[in-house]
Design a protein that fits this description.
The complex is a heterodimer of chains A (about 475) and B (about 160).
Chain A (H helix, E strand, L loop, with lengths): L2 H19 L9 H18 L6 H6 L3 H20 L1 H13 L4 H15 L6 H22 L4 H15 L9 H9 L7 H23 L21 H20 L5 H16 L3 H4 L5 H20 L1 H15 L3 H15 L6 H22 L4 H15 L9 H9 L7 H22 L8 H21 L7 H16 L1
Helix pairs in contact in A: 1-2, 1-14, 1-15, 2-14, 4-7, 4-12, 5-6, 5-7, 5-11, 6-7, 6-8, 6-10, 6-22, 7-8, 7-19, 8-10, 8-18, 8-19, 9-17, 9-18, 10-20, 10-21, 11-12, 15-16, 15-17, 16-17, 16-18, 17-18, 18-20, 21-22
Chain B lengths: L2 H28 L24 H9 L5 E3 L4 E3 H7 L4 E3 L5 E3 H6 L7 E8 H7 L5 H5 L6 H11 L6
Antiparallel strand pairs in B: 1-5, 2-5, 3-4, 3-5
Helix pairs in contact in B: 5-7
The chains are: A mainly alpha (about 475), B alpha+beta (about 160).
């Protein structure tokens, strides 16, 4: 094993661990700067050891797609906010919650929306839907007299959105794995979607019964909550344009980049609502963007220094020479992104997928089960995709914690556990139904609706309603049906 | 946050944003600014019979560096030829181990023996490309990848230079 590679990987994990544990205080060195410093150190070490290091090593390792998709998503979220689209969405959800289907229906639909219309980055959905989740959460908390319920709704949405880039057919991590492994396009999407519905409800259950995260009884950031005021018509128009635009994009998958579509929708909203460019800036969050950029830079440094090769060689060694064996190391590999959660799952996924493929092939050969490669790959991809939720260094969970005024990284553990328990669902679905590029198969349709209805029943209980409340059941059925269609 | 940390950290963030600007400028300078819109979905990878990962050409173009290393997992050429082209080219041994061509030769493998490629520089991968256009057809947004391949094959550098 290359000693420079070993040192590089130790520097990387040391920086990550130090930042996560607080040994490198964020008020001294935020994660972005810490990762940049780590990248510089690794680069210098590699250069001094005689390896060829060029600027192109870092540039070629950067995946620009999620960064530009998030920028476009944030800009559109800014337009939505300025035009009253958030207020309209909240009004719409409030009306749904006042129907006989009630709050459970609204909650089930809301928290699963990011996976139904999966985007290349979950932040595209979280940004506009967070105020609605907060409103719904506080309303149900007031109604049920349970202060842990806002966290349920908010972090249910967060973990669902975080994982949603896995099944996204427009440049999601799943498509990346399909391409690299030469599997059929879209074949990884179905099992992931079902598993994410389970991850969502398990996370919500953990927040309710185990971690009991209670925020302030009244929202701290009143300005961020949609106000009860007259909503202009262009607000409703903007919100409908947002949902329909993204839904059509997911269904049709036009040969136009999603970024272009989002910018086009932004321009339309700006014209209708007479917004200025300054109005759009409110939606932009620089932290996750710079965290992603610095993550990609350090990934480039690790590729150039051989750090990832060392990691894979190390896992190979563990499989052959320790009691862990191939199965133990496979589990380690699957959950590695959760152990070291980055602000974007692609940072680890892109570098490790070739290794996962190689390992999966060996695992399949050793156990005599060829589908195991796909099982391992899908599980890893889902774990990587969802890992940005619990990441304390610019992950989506931080958005929820900040909006709720919570101190510390309280949502990390419930999300990580939820992902830990939910990822095997994807593995089981692949094992029993195989891979299919079409969602309109009997097996997937049945599993999707049954699992979603069960999750709907569980949501009824979590929100303090009766288990057979029609809201959760019909909400679950609708989510299951929409997963098949979209 | 103390003032000097404020300055250091602000410079760090500006550096990160500057990196993004550098990336965009690099793509512009290579003559292929459209390479920035690649989804990095790897759909172009599956249909290539030579095992080329065409996304490597895209990465090479937005890095403006024809020497970017990329996967070519089904190319076949004699070890001697691999050594001539690039001694650091990664090839696959019979036992599946990945070694550089130079390391293979040091192990005593006959230079006339055909080896399976694994990773090589983009400009060499362009020589192995069959120009079938399957990767372009598979691309969900129809990026003209063959334009980059043609440029690399004919000139070995990007047209921006």
């Amino acid at each position: 094993m290359d000693p420079i590679g070993i040192i590089s990987i130790l520097i990387f994990f040391g920086t990550l661990f130090g930042s996560i544990k607080g040994w490198i205080p964020q008020r001294v060195l935020p994660i972005q700067v810490a990762l940049l410093a780590a990248a510089a150190l690794i680069g210098i070490l590699a250069f001094l050891s005689g390896k060829e290091i060029h600027a192109s090593s870092f540039v070629s390792a950067t995946t620009l797609h999620p960064i530009t998709a998030v920028i476009a998503g944030f800009i559109f979220a800014g337009a939505l906010k300025a035009s009253g689209g958030f207020d309209a969405a909240t009004d719409f959800v409030r009306r749904i919650s006042r129907t006989p289907l009630g709050i459970p229906f609204a909650v089930v639909l809301l928290v699963n929306l990011p996976t139904i219309f999966a985007m290349p980055c979950g932040r595209i959905w979280v940004s506009p839907l967070m105020p609605i989740a907060l409103m719904l959460g506080y309303e149900v908390a007031k109604e049920r007299g349970n202060p842990t319920l806002p966290a349920l709704v908010v972090f249910g949405l967060v973990v669902n959105a975080a994982a949603s880039c896995g099944p996204s057919l427009i440049g999601g991590i799943g498509v990346l794995g399909e391409g690299m492994g030469r599997y059929g396009t879209g074949s990884f999407s179905n099992p992931q979607s079902i598993a994410i519905v389970v991850i969502t409800v398990v996370t919500m259950a953990l927040l309710r019964f185990v971690f009991a995260v209670a925020g302030p009884s009244e929202p701290d950031h009143g300005d961020d909550l949609p106000q009860r005021r007259a909503i202009p018509e262009h607000g409703y128009f903007s919100f409908i344009l947002f949902v329909v635009g993204l839904a059509v994009t997911v269904v049709i998958q036009p040969p136009v980049p999603i970024q272009t579509i989002l910018v086009f929708l932004t321009v339309v909203v700006m014209i209708i609502a007479r917004l200025s460019v300054a109005d759009l800036l409110d939606g932009i969050l620089l932290h996750p963007l710079t965290a992603m950029i610095s993550g990609f830079i350090v990934a480039g440094a690790l590729v150039a220094s051989g750090g990832f090769d060392v990691l894979l060689a190390g896992l190979d060694y563990l499989a052959l020479h320790t009691p862990l064996g191939y199965i133990g190391v496979a589990l380690l590999l699957i959950y590695l992104p959760i152990v070291f959660p980055m602000p974007c799952g692609r940072i680890i996924a892109v570098s490790l997928i070739p290794g996962v493929l190689m390992f999966g092939e060996r695992l399949a050969a050793v156990l005599g089960r060829p589908p195991l490669q796909a099982v391992l790959l899908i599980s890893f991809i889902l774990s990587a995709a969802a890992s940005c939720g619990p990441s304390p260094i610019g992950g989506i969970g931080c958005l929820g914690e900040g909006n709720m005024g919570l101190k510390g990284y309280v949502s990390g553990r419930p999300q990580a556990l939820g992902i830990f328990l939910g990822v095997p669902v994807a593995a089981l679905v692949v094992s029993f139904t195989g891979l299919s590029q079409s969602a309109f198969t009997v097996s997937f349709s049945v599993i999707s609706i049954c699992v979603s209805v069960l999750c709907g029943l569980a949501t009824n209980v979590l929100l303090g309603f009766k288990v057979y409340h029609p809201g959760g059941i019909l909400g679950g059925a609708l989510v299951g049906a929409l997963l098949i269609v979209f | 946050m103390k003032r000097h940390f404020l300055i250091i950290n602000t410079c760090g963030i500006v550096l990160a944003v500057g990196f993004l600007i550098y990336l965009c400028a690099s793509a512009l300078y290579s003559g292929y600014p459209w390479s920035l819109i690649c989804y990095y979905c790897k759909k172009c990878n599956a249909p290539c019979v030579v095992g080329i990962d065409p996304q490597g050409f895209i990465a090479s173009s937005y890095s403006n560096d024809p020497n970017v290393s990329m996967y070519v997992t089904n190319g076949r050429l004699p070890l001697g030829r691999a050594m001539e082209v690039d001694p650091s080219m990664v090839v696959q041994a019979e036992d599946g181990k990945k070694l550089s061509a130079a390391a293979m030769k040091r192990k005593g493998v006959d230079p006339g023996r055909e080896v399976l490629t694994y990773r090589m520089r983009a400009k060499e991968a362009a020589q192995l490309c069959l120009s079938c256009g399957a990767c372009e057809k598979a691309c969900p947004i129809g990026l003209p990848i063959s334009a980059i391949v043609k440029d690399l094959r004919e000139h070995g550098v990007f047209r921006g230079k």
